[in-house]
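User: Fold both of these, please.

Assistant: Here is the first one.
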Amino acid sequence: MRLVAAMAAIALLLLAGPLTGAARAATPALGAPAEAPVSGSPLTLVLEQVTPRLVTADGPETITVAGTLVNNGPVAVDEIEIRLQRGDELRTEGEIRTAIEGSAAADAVTPQFTDLPGVLVPGEHIPVRFTMPLRGDPGTGLALSQPGVYELLVNVNGMPAGGARARLAAVRMLLPVLSLPPDPAAGASLGSASTRTPTTPFTLLYPIADAPRRLPGVPGEITTLTDDDLADSFAPGGRLNGLVAALAQRAPVGSRVREATCLAVDPDLVQTAAAMRDGYQVRAPDGTRTPGRGAAAAGSWLDALAATARGSCVLALPMADADLVALTRGGLTERAAQAVTDGRELLTEALGTPVLDGTLWPVDGLLDEPTLAAVGTTSAASTSTFVLSAEGIERSRTTTTTGVVRIAAAQPGETAVLIDPLLNRAAVEHAGPGSARDSDSETGAVPTTSTAAGTSTPLSTQDIIGALLFRAQQGPRADASGPLVLAPPHQWAADGTGADALLSAVSRMLDETLLQPRALATGVATGPAAASGSRRLFYPVRAGAREIPPAVIDRVRTVGDEVERLRGAAEIEPGVGVSPAEVFDPVMRATLRATSAAWRGYPDLAERSMTLISDRIGELRSSVRVLEPPGPYSLGTNEAPLLLTVANGLPVAMKVRVELRSTAGLKVAPIPQQRVPPLGRIQVRVNAEVTRSGQFAVDATVRTPDGGALGPPTRLQVRSTAYGTITVWLTGVAGVLLVVLVVRRMLRRDHRKGGAPAPSRLRPVEPDPGGGAPRPAASDPSRPTRPGPGPAAPPRVPTQRP
């Protein structure tokens, strides 16, 4: 029996394998989330429409599903059929969580399959659209009988070539039922659930953010982006355009939905849009630059956002949505506080409307105590209220999901407004790169789940609507001192269609008095209950594993030091309206883009972003340099000056030190500090002494007054035709030696003239002892013997001429 049970379980697992849906894959480009098909499944179902998103008594009596079925596999699939099926009503928070994760049963009602005609060959796709009654018989409809929240499954079966029939694709979602339309058989409808539950105070945080794409620049320079995805997102039909349009249409100023809503905006995104409207360029990976195509769309979007935000609650995210905890752990506490203060100031200026001061919503709603101290009331950020996840507060005897609590180990008056963790879980299922959903809360593994958002962005808010209705039907907690807070993650993947569906559902629940609008500022002003105690912060281990890597934080520190060196060398140029702060403050803020929450859980993207930023700042630093002359310097004397040209590509005057280094051939006098005008150049006269003739190389570098490197070394070629010191010295020594030798020769000659004559080489003549004629002396045995003379020749008598 055990063997039979095991074989049956294995068979069920094999059949249920395709239910795992689309697993989140690694992001191939900055800010572009990617979805992968189910491993081993040839088909992928992409849903684009589900109507209605919230079932109501005055809504349609049927549910309609539309989308596309794609064959991504290597074989054709035949006998394809599709159906909708559902599970029982989800009555507990645990059942809702299980359904959101994609592991709940959805086989309580399983109507008949509907055939899809034709064979789907590899690479092809077919449209899918079918309708089913919400009530009615279980064989032909969903057979809903009461309000609640249900697990809905779109199930696709088929027969791959050479295989057996199996479930090849599936998409799951929550189906919220506020009330039911009339039953055709009974002729009556179930009323709204609003009469059965008390009203729950409700606050919605509406994030408008995106992955940073702007490279550092200086005033007067054309804006440069890493890609042109924002052009599509800002345009009609794009994600960011849809978020603003949905808010303007479904939650106009003065409506109950807008009263409950607070916009949470990334200041860096708004600044990027403002820069794009004046024209920009896109830098390709190979360094080439092309004109951007979204200037008009960015300007229109920014105007629409400013108009929509006017008169509303606006909350500024940290600059570039920076990971404050990672910055603090890396020792950059001042940078973390500056990210908060700069974000508030810049967003207020860009939108022309005040932002909620003293309130901070960190990424994932999580903080540790050192970060709290860095951005709290004792710091420059001056924050007294934090919007935190209920999972980021230590647990007490009772589970807390809503309310306003005092924070322990903090300054008096610092409080936290709690985000409902169930609503947050439903929202992060559909977040972009870096969201908490990318790592399982227990194991840290990347789970596979066939959520609606996993295959289609338009359905990305469906689970949020279901979880919100579940909470609203439960009613307010008796011990809650604050509102029920729905706060999707900062990097929310919802588009205009998904946002429109969520806001419409919220509006309907407000109209049905299931929810009551509560502005975030009201909850902040009300504060915690008088009798409530303080709670300590809790920072989950899984959150630390997803932080921006320490290596990236170290590079942020290094690059920041380089920017500060540039700032220290800069001066205000009289008559020029650009100050060092206007030049280098934006560059310093740009380094925070590498710490954006968009890269949490994606260390490779964080590293890539930091590399792009570092390279760009290196280009700005290298714009202050010695220009290479068109040809070599020719020096005709041993003390000839060199004229160097120092250029400054920054729009601010720079104090620099010029250094010349040569292995041999040139000695340089100390060069005084120079001042180079903004976007200008100067000539520096360098006093140099040539130590040898010939051609040799000299390296010229430019540094800040404190020794920081600016532009790269410039190689100068020097050709000398003058005699250097060493050459002259050698020539002089040679001349002295020549004189000494001449004098010596002359002295020897004079000595010979004034002394005894030198011995003759002729043989001496000795007198003949016999009184005869003298004869040669005896031969010297050391000399060679010569033959003696012959007989004397008779004397020659001259002939006398007549």
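And the second sequence with its predicted structure:
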Amino acid sequence: MDRARLLAAYERMVLIRRVEERVAVLYRDGLVPGFVHTSVGQEACAVGALVHARASDVITSTHRGHGHVLAKGLPPRQMLAELMARETGACHGRGGSMHVADPGLGIFGANGIVGAGLPIALGAAHALRRRGAGDAVIAFFGDGAVATGAFHEAMNVAALWRLPLVFFCENNRFSEFSRAEDQHPVPVRERAGAYGMAFVELAGNDVEAVADGMRQVLDQARAGDGPVLVESVTTRVRGHYEGDEQRYRERSDLDDATARDPLLVTRARLLGLGVPAADVERAERRAEADVEDAEKFARESPEPAPADAAEYVYAPRRRARPDQAAVPAGGTRADGTRSAAAAGGASSAGTPPEGAGSRPSSGSRILRQAMRDALAADPLVFLAGIDVAGGNVFGLTRGLAGEFPDRVLDTPIAETAIMGLGVGAAMAGLRPVVELMYLDFLGVCLDQIMNQAAKLRFMTGGAVTVPMVVRTQFGSGRSSGSQHSQSLETLFAHIPGLTVVMPSFGDDAYGLLRTAIEDDNPVVFIENRLLYERKWAMPADDHRVPLGKARVVRPGTDVTIVSWSRMVFEALAAAETLSTEGIDAEVLDLRTIVPLDREAVLASLARTNRLVVAHEAVVDFGVGAEIAALAVNEGFWSLDAPVRRVGAAYTPAPYAPSLERRWEAGAADIVQAVREVTAC
């Protein structure tokens, strides 16, 4: 670097150091809540890594990310205001120390989960490459993250796809309280070789060395030569968190850290190059003045208003066209076109008219057509997942890769990477539809859905939207066993920020999937594989179904049966049986679990005064319990009998057909529950 650029880098390092020192004092005095992890001693890594970065480049960061975001250009005012939980902070006080972000500056967020930013960096890098401007992603992580599955999955996909991504490891030689040599059997450099990835080692306490090395690394990434793993060996001066007394460290190690202080190294070099001491001191004073100004700004800023506590959980829903779903079952609109219900809904007698309409198609073909139409309508949409280019395990995406070769992407078996790909790409402006092959596999990638996709809009104070769809499927009744049969919608429904969709009829599957892809929130779209071969009319390509709107698929007067997904058909079959006994059951198909159409449930209950909830999931602690609570609270004065829930027994799904038949619920169980409530 020339002297002017080196002096500017030094000033930025001093700014970071002074901010961190001030944060430590504010934290001690109770003005910074929560947890704080400072980056004192690691300033040369953050600044050096980004000297040659563009404003349009993207970074992902760690729980120790203050230096990264300041080096990328976040103003100190917004930084300190955020840490002090003020409305003027970068995230309006919703993120805090471990989640500072400003996507407008290419800062896709610090992250409280070790390694979690790496899969998100995949999606950002994919989006940047699609944009074609030669931009790159720098994903910061600590040496402790190399032990995580997220690290390995991200490295593998990045190398396979040759993404413009720099994995920047700040090796401060401690994973929380443990020495790196006690945590990892091989050095970081050998991780790169395992994926055929280029490796560069940098002297992390020398900002000039880091900057010079990163210039070449970024040139390689921008040129399309694939990702690079960078190890920058540095020093963590303070503890893992503020308050950590570091009793696990030797005194000699701490003394060495002080001797290798990157600020002292850079200051001495500037003076050695002939930069006047007065210029160096002016840079230091400017940095210190910026910190004073930032603290004053933060102290004088208001806290977020308690009345706004629920802000930023969801992006605004797009305004739907006149609601096709509002047409009565089997009816037609004023313009004479068919309604959704007429095309494939339930008849007034309660039997779904499979094959209705002029183009009978299977549920799987209808879903495929919805994805095809979405790809054709919007170049920002892409599909990704395990074997999706080959059609997926059920053939739902068959043929789409031939028509959209650059937007139907096979991935390795790496569910965390797949979900992170979706999150990062959505943050960068694309509309990913990522596939989780089986709903049961949720456990291996839950962090990216629960802690990233669902929370990022909230934690950034509304600065980002995450318009991604997670398509998955489930279904019991075919001896798929305990790990391939679970109905887990309750887990998603309990996570604020997610939208959860579970269609039953073919027209709803099409309309809800198109709406989900066009929505600006993360949507989990759960299909039932036992409905893939049922037949319905193919909806028109303009067909949409609004999220959060249930529909009555069979009107009735004596009892309401609320259900969703495949259990709707069990409810309809039960209603037919009950009609022979003189009991007129109304069947309400929720269609979406979140948002829950509470008004529709209460309106139906007001008409019938009795309620049964039927779902494929186990009864205990499920969505049915939430609906029962709704009935006995808001709907209490409509109830003439106890609420009954019908579902699977509270055990894992059995394999043996005889056990599975006993375990799962069906029409006969619904009939019995209705008999009980109507006898009251």
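The chain has three domains: 3-298, 357-537, 551-678.
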